[in-house]
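Sample entry (371 residues):
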Amino acid sequence: MAVLRRIRFALLLTLAALLAVVPLSPVPASAATLSMRGADVSSLQRSLDLGARYYNAAGTAADPLDILKGAGVNYVRLRVWNNPASGYNNKAKVLAYARTVKAKGLGLMIDFHYSDTWADPGKQFKPAAWASHGISQIQTDVYNYTYDVCNSLKAQGTTPDSVQIGNEINVGMLWNDGKVVNNDFTNLSLLLKAGYNATKACNSGTQVIIHTADADSLANARWFYDGIRAKGVPWDITALSYYCMWHGSLSNLSTVLNDVRSRYGKPVIVAETAYPFTASNADSEPNVIGGSAPCSGYPATWTGQANNFTAVQNTARGAGAIGVFYWEPTWYAIAGNGWDPANINGTGDQWDNMATFNWTGGINPNIRWTP
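Predicted structure, serialized as tokens:
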């Protein structure tokens, strides 16, 4: 018996040694690659129409998409509004610029706001055409509108690679019908399913993204995504917004990204991030973010902006994310390209210090999107 015990003990030691070198879990998150290296350039078409010029790091004028590609961008995000007063960014404008995006060999994400103006955590206005519609009709509206935009893109040879069903929908979309009240996700789930089904009916390979700005709170992220999962909502990619001045530390971002990736078993991306390169203001419109160092360790300089973006990418990659998108890197202050679609000529640019191009159109020479 003593011999048998020694044999069993030797076998256990051998097994332990094997387990120490042979992983029994999937490839660790730290081995992730950022395959979606994105830029939301939704304001760019208007800037170009107004005569904006863009310059690469050598000071040579070039197409801004080519400049961004040279810095590592491989994916473009375009928002679509139903019927904005200015025309930017309605379906026709998005269709036109999608041709340019695809001609550059870039991936295309369509960001459905389902509104005539901005949709974000603090506001989710119905488009005017749907204002009197109840939840049953709005389901049909979402389906038909999503399918129409997607199919129109497909028909011209620019099928979207991915779409967002709603933008930063922390507590729902198309308020008040699609707002989550008293933890009831029923109405929101109906709208998300309508958008998902329309997208897949248009093109089964287009990935459906559900996007919140919950990178600041693990509890909020779980509340939302647990809520829609419990209602049977399907989606392909989980997306979060992260701005350090609003959403906290990179350590917390890592925790939330890791959790939603493992908890829901889906790829995750940072759909929006940005950082200022200056505390100054280029026009009469107050900047959204001011200060010489809005986040500790990152001064509002070219170097600070680039370092912050690199840190966000590194954190996302380390947490197993597959993509990071910079929000509106090309939106430097151009008269007539204001933030308010209902008064685009009479308002200024709140983002001019957050773009990766300065006030004369020169790219931050230090900024890079990296796999």
